[in-house]
Amino acid sequence: MKWNKRKIIDRVMSTLTAACVVIAIIPLLSILYTVTINGISAVSLDFLTQIPRPVGEAGGGLGNAIEGTFIVVGIACLIGLPVGILSGVYLSEYGQNRFGRFVSFVADVLTGTPSIVAGMFGYTFIVLYFGSFSAIAGGVALSVLMIPIVTRTTEESLRLVPGSIKEASLALGIPKWKTTFYIVLSTARSGIITGALLSIARISGETAPLLFTSFGNMFWANGLDKPISTMPVQIYTYAITPFPDWHAKAWAGALVLIILILVLNIGVRFVTRRKYGV
Amino acid sequence: MQNKITIKNLNAWFGAKQVLHDIDIGIEKNGITAIIGPSGCGKSTFIRCLNRMHEVVPYAKASGKVLVDDRDIYDSDIDPVEIRRRIGMVFQKPNPFPTMSIRDNVVAGLKLGGLKDKKILDTMTEESLKKAALWDEVKNDLNKSGVSLSGGQQQRLCIARALAVEPEVILFDEPCSALDPISTSKIEDLMLELKEKYTIVIVTHNMQQAARVSDHTAFFLYGKLIEFGETDQIFKKPKEKSTEDYIIGRFG
Question: Could you give the CA distance from residue B26 to residue B5 in angstroms, rounded to a whole number?
């Protein structure tokens, strides 16, 4: 093969892009490796199903934190998914005006807001108002992070639906609202679900917004209006102590959290895999 | 001849730009009326005014009268949704609903109109696909995706979908411009069959197509109706110079 300038540049650039991919993947693999190595030994059935024990006592787990994470994230979804999806529908279908553009802009800014600000929101409006840390305050704080992500991804997915599909539906005598909800939303389904999924994965690992909203608890959940344990906060609590036993539990908790989010991703992709090859 | 649709003094705009000027025309019942003219002459806008699809586009408006069975569809107490159910439309590019099966595509209008009875839906699926001359090709694949079909089959699927809601008029907006000659001739045969029961308006760029299928032809230029008459007369003895120029290919 004869080498000339064009071929050399081609080879150099291809190598460069491949090298960048490797660099991007290194931290990811290193995190997975470290978390697995440090955490796997402490993971057991007891770890997944029992509540924490006092320092010095062997055993115990973070069953309550797993439960709490599901509850708090569940509350965030109950608020965040409908509000986010409907806002996205508004922005894409009706929001071609100043107000719509303003909302889009605000959603973009909110997406980049430090998550502890969401925690301050939950603290100010829920915790101070009701006078207690609570699962609901945590859910509200997480939903604040969730709504802008869901709104923007829904809006973008809906914009990708060709106008010809909407026209086909309207021309059949299907009213606009039914066209939007049954034809357009269903065509954009996989994009919207992906957005919802990303937002759930994102908030499931959030610690900062929960520190002073859901706070934490060493026992099983005992009410939505009471402080509740969550995995990120529990991991944090374990990690900042000086006890090696608890450090191991923090690693194990991190591993479980990563696996849960992975399972969630795979599960939803499986459920929503495209029925047809479109 | 009895007119199904009478258009009186129809004007249409996109924003400040007027695209149709004082159109007066009668569409014969159980006939095929072809609309011909160069690109941008307002053909598509014209038929989109006949089922109130024109106003779906932002900043688009229309004025004048469109009488369907002597009732003005632009009356303020008329629901455009109801008009679109009675006056169906087939578009230039086949546009089946991508997430739906063939069966669901056909009965989409009925299902979203609230019809749930599975038996009736199945009957309507079969009937509509038969009317659209597609049944034999897809009867074993009703659960397959609508977009898995070829372009010509997709277009007939769209025709079946329009037929399923039992319209009185069907508007075809250049239905064959994305299709090969074989699919085109299938759709032309189909239109000739359909006119027994339906009133048909077709916009076409293809002069031979207009000559082959239509009973009446209207020639549009720069948003104005230049000439309207029996297809034979328009193609053989056009009264207007510009009609003749367009038909023999001197411009457009």
Answer: 6
CB distance B121 to B107 below 8 Å: yes
Q: Which long-range CB contacts under 8 A does B135-144 form with residues at least 24 apart?
A: B138/B102, B141/B102, B142/B101, B142/B102, B142/B103, B143/B101, B143/B102, B143/B103, B144/A276, B144/B101, B144/B102
CA triple B139-B142-B144, angle to 5 deg: 130
- B87-136 pLDDT, tens digit per residue, is 999 999 999 999 899 999 999 999 998 888 999 999 999 999 988 888 98
**How much is the ipTM here?**
0.88
Which of A172, A174, A275, A276 best tests the B interface by mutation, with the highest count of B CBs <10 A?
A: A172
User: Could you tell me which of A225, A244, A217 has the C-alpha nearest to residue A62?
Assistant: A217
In a domain, residue B77? The reply is: yes
Q: Which residues of A touch B97 (CB under 8 A)?
A: 165, 168-169, 183, 186-187
Note the pLDDT of residue B114.
86
List Cβ neighbours of B78 (8 Å cut-off, separation of 6 or more): B71, B72
From the list B51, B99, B145, the residue facing A171 with the nearest CB is B51
Question: Domain residues for B223?
Answer: 3-92+168-247
Cα gap B169→B79, rounded to integer Å: 17
**Which CATH class name applies to A64-271?**
mainly alpha
Q: pLDDT tens, A229-247?
A: 999 999 999 999 998 888 9
